[in-house]
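quick one before i forget lol
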Amino acid sequence: MKAFIHDFIAKKGIWVGSSLLISRLSAFLLTIFVARILTKEDFGAVTFGLNFLTIFLAFSGFGASQGVLRFGSVIKDQEHKRNLFRYAFSYGLIYNCVLTLIMLLAAIFLYWNEIPKIEIIALFSIRFLGMYLVEQKKAEYRAQHDNQSFARLDIFLSVSALVLGIAMTYFLGMKGFMASLCIAPFFLFFYNFKLNFSLKKFHFEDFTTKEFWRFSWTTALTTQIGELVFILDIFFIGLLMNDHDVANYKVSSMIPMNILVLGFIFMQTEYPKLCQHHRDKKYQYHFIFNYWKLFAVLSIFILGIGFFFENEILAIFGSQYKDIGIYRILLLGAVASLLFRVLFVYMLASIGKPIWNLVISIFMLVLTSLSLYFIIPQYGLLGVSYVTLGCLSLSGILPMFAYFYESKKL
């Protein structure tokens, strides 16, 4: 396991972890500042626009960045790798424009009698373009196994967005905040970015362009559905219960759900290397074994600290939050997800089988929705927490079986 951890550090995993933590902290601090400066109405309006944009963000460029990360990691020849970057960026940019048009038409159809909402969404189409450029550049760095450059870019953009957002919101209010959200992604051009637009058709030896786009949109769709599964509990509590219950559950889930960041840091660092060894069953199995050894120890530590200091942890959010039972159940669910779901969703993608993740995510979306709808009226928040525990566990176990089934064919 020492060699496993050393390899993680050698791949600049500390940089990736730092960038992820700084990114989340920056977004958190900006949210606190803006919520204090803007009125509830203005803050709610901007939040609505961002949430609407989030629905489409996973599909930006029809998932071109996902394909770049997966197939770019496999290509060894640097010139061929650059050809893939040019191809994916160019066609992804065209598809992103098409998706922007779809987003605007959807906004007009859904909110045709609410012009302010349409105007906000139309303005955020600028941010949509900027985020596409950012994700493409990040994917290129990671496909080159350059985690340090990836992390530096992420940190630079996160801090820039925080400073710009605070300054523009303070002086210009709601309009300043929206403008900062649109401008911030384009700070990419101050870092290191050149537009290599070319519609030339390239031939790739290890895969076809059809395979590239099939993987890209499948992974993007899976990501989006996976995000929906994780917010269903709050949605149904808000639908079938009251705001007080939403607040209680949200607080109880914040610490457990943020534990998953540890797994994401590790898997994001190792994912390009796993893609490079996508046909080496011995390498992949060895990685799984070492991941389990490391995170089994971390899980025991997390549960020990989490249970022993449960009262102190919940007290961080205020004395009114004392529902330890829900917190305990969700902590167990988070650990189960850390050991299985985080690992095997990435493992399936690394061997080019994201379709399993898509099918499982759709199944979990339906199962979770039905379970919450029928259980909440009778069992309340405790029932929600058990449903979440079951779904987090099952959404990890099913990908595990799918992975070992597919890996036999390697």
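fyi Residues 210-407 form one domain.
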